[in-house]
Design goal:
This protein has 3 helices and 25 strands. The chain is of the alpha/beta class. Strand 4 and strand 5 form a beta hairpin.
């Protein structure tokens, strides 16, 4: 999924999600059968759509905000802490009997929200043959090549591609549909501009063996030729021929790098070993 039209349609039709981690504290000192049944009822409701971990007086729940709130609201509607004021009849799974279930067993609810109405999940990195450091943010539908290195704080948007043995350094941003070839180094704080809208715009393309210095910016639609070196802080606004040294804002070619390899853009293979 690398063309803008497909990405736009994917985002439009995707189920929007609000994943959360909830801590549901239960009132301490609850030991009666009716309270135990109430707790088990709540757990069963949550387990329909969420992952629930019973930690005694606290339930830790991973799931959708709406599903968790619905289960809690159902308990709030059904009764009161005072059994004489109100209760709900429910069946005990273990005995098959019906029991008056006092509902107000919840002491507190704390919710940690990961995202709100998110259309694109993060990429499952567990099976990648690459090194992904903590704090990197990689969205779904991103391709990561073998022995690539994604450093802390790097952000890679939907539709982007990172080639084999390429390093994306700390805090670099790869926008939507950016293509980075093999054996590249994208320096810390770089921005490779993304293009999802307008959908007619062309993506940034970084060919093989390119080194880009810290905090450089490459504007959408630009192609950086193979084995080029972009100086720190440069702003590239047009295509760059292969084997070029570029500096300044706007970026300009100051000389051609001789040969297919130079000391300034040879990767260190030991850093790519898995």
């Amino acid at each position: 999924m690398s063309d803008a039209k497909s990405i736009i349609e994917y985002i439009r039709t995707a189920k929007k999600r609000t994943p959360v981690k909830a801590y549901i504290g239960l009132k301490t000192g609850i030991r009666s059968e009716t309270h135990i049944v109430a707790k088990n009822w709540l757990i069963l409701q949550l387990k329909n759509t969420c992952r629930v971990f019973d930690c005694g007086n606290t339930l830790i729940v991973f799931g959708e905000l709406e599903d968790i709130e619905d289960a809690i609201d159902q308990m709030a509607e059904y009764g009161s802490e005072d059994q004489s004021a109100g209760s709900v009849q429910t069946s005990s799974e273990s005995t098959g009997t019906r029991t008056n279930m006092p509902v107000k067993i919840i002491d507190f609810v704390e919710i940690e929200t990961e995202a709100r109405n998110s259309a694109i999940p993060l990429l499952d990195i567990s099976k990648l043959d690459a090194r992904i450091e903590p704090g990197a943010v990689i969205r779904g539908n991103v391709k990561i090549g073998k022995q690539a290195v994604i450093m802390m704080g790097a952000i890679i948007n939907i539709g982007a591609e990172v080639g084999a043995r390429t390093m994306i350094d700390m805090g670099a941003v790869l926008g939507g549909r950016v293509i980075v070839g093999a054996d590249c180094h994208i320096g810390a704080g770089c921005v490779l501009a993304g293009v999802i809208e307008p959908e007619s715009a062309e993506p940034v393309v970084i060919e093989d063996g390119v080194f880009i210095g810290a905090n450089a910016v490459v504007i959408e639609g630009c192609r950086i030729g193979a084995k080029s070196v972009i100086g720190a802080g440069a702003v590239v606004t047009s295509d760059i021929p292969p084997h070029s040294l570029v500096v300044g804002a706007p970026g300009r070619v100051v000389r051609t790098l001789e040969g297919s390899k130079t000391a300034v853009n040879e990767i260190i293979k030991e850093l790519r070993e898995i």
